[in-house]
Amino acid sequence: MMNKLGERLAAVIAIGCIVVAPFVQSTPWLWFFAIIVTLLSLILLLIQKTRFFSLSIIALAIFFAIGLIPPFIFALTLAFVVIGELVFRSVNENVRSYFAYAVVAAASAVLITLYYQTLNLLQPAPLTVLLGTIVAVLLKAILGDRDDALMVETLGISMTMLLFNDLNYQVSVTLISVAVLIAFSFGYFAYRFKTADLSGLFSAALLGILLIVFADVRWFIIMLAFFIAGSACTRYRYTEKEKLGVEQNRGGARGYRNVFANGGVSVAAAVMFGVTHQPAFAAMFVGSVATAAADTVASEIGVTGGTPYMITTGKKVPAGTNGGVTLIGEFSALICAIGISATAFFLGVIDLPTFGMCSIAGLVGTNLDSLVGAVIENRGYIGNAGTNVIGTLGGGLFALALYWVLFV
User: Fold this and answer.
1) Nearest to residue 101, comparing CAs of 70, 116, 80?
2) Cβ(268)–Cβ(280) below 8 Å
3) Structure pTM?
4) Angle between helix 256-276 and 198-214 (nearest 10)
5) pLDDT of residue 160
6) What is the pLDDT of residue 213?
7) What's the CA angle centered on 199, arms 249 and 173, to 5 degrees?
8) Distance (Å, whole) CA 132 – CA 112
9) Per-residue b/e over 25-57, b at no fewer than 16 CB within 10 Å?
10) What residues does each domain of the chain span?
């Protein structure tokens, strides 16, 4: 009974803040508003399982009072973190709870947008609202039942919307709708075919939308080619990999770490291309995707290609050792890097000289990944995701540097 009372109080505070926020603009009233909200939220600290609701609301109220976030972002974040969380808890079923959370987040975004339009107040572009909604669901899938989940979600959602609001990138609602349909369709089928878990579904959809919106659908197809090649190679001689103990966990289902580690640099390059329209960032994009694909293929095929040798010493090492390379793995990496670069070339994303640069960059990035694995990861300084980030960043920057030297 006490928990229900606390949840209802959190919902009342959130809705009250959302309604009042547009009318609180001057500095004295902002701080008065923040103090009142804080005092009301402190009651939640006394109620079990609603303490982090209290801290999240107080944090948002302070952000709002000091002018860090505008009223619209304050209202949206509050709706996602409080109302969305209450719906998520009430459903209490794995997949359905996330679906319910997403529906409530989207509905809250629409209602708050209409409210601000009625008051003739400025609200962020639809892209900002969409990305905030997706990040809200993604963070929920990543954090699960962690005690500090609400606080992390509060920061993640508000800062994401603030970033893209300040970027002020203009895009049509039609393109956004197409991007959502394509990216979520891909994520859904990846989840259904068990090549991605829930966090992988939402993170892949997020990156897919960014690719399509800031570049175009061809860039998404290039990333899709990497995903298909990687998934196919993960299943290549899988039984043999199981016997060797080097198979991918969960049958190769990708989670958010894998998605961001392999695709984060590429999407950053796509965003920079969309903002600057510099073709050098297209080279960086293809170089990083070629690296991610080549490294995945080299790892999955290389472990079945005979005895690997440590890249730093040339000594024989057990299959699956970080930094171990094989001749067939290197050959597979080169072929895959050429394949990804050729896909980009035939789609018209890069020209013929850049095709050659990106093919080389893919092989360079793959070996950088192996080197980092041998020197840094094996010593426990970073994990596999960190190694992948460095490898894809290295491959992307190598392609960018070559393009810059030869064409700029």
Assistant:
1) 80
2) no
3) 0.89
4) 10
5) 93
6) 95
7) 145
8) 13
9) eeeeebeebbeebbebbeebeebeebbbbbbbb
10) 1-161, 217-408
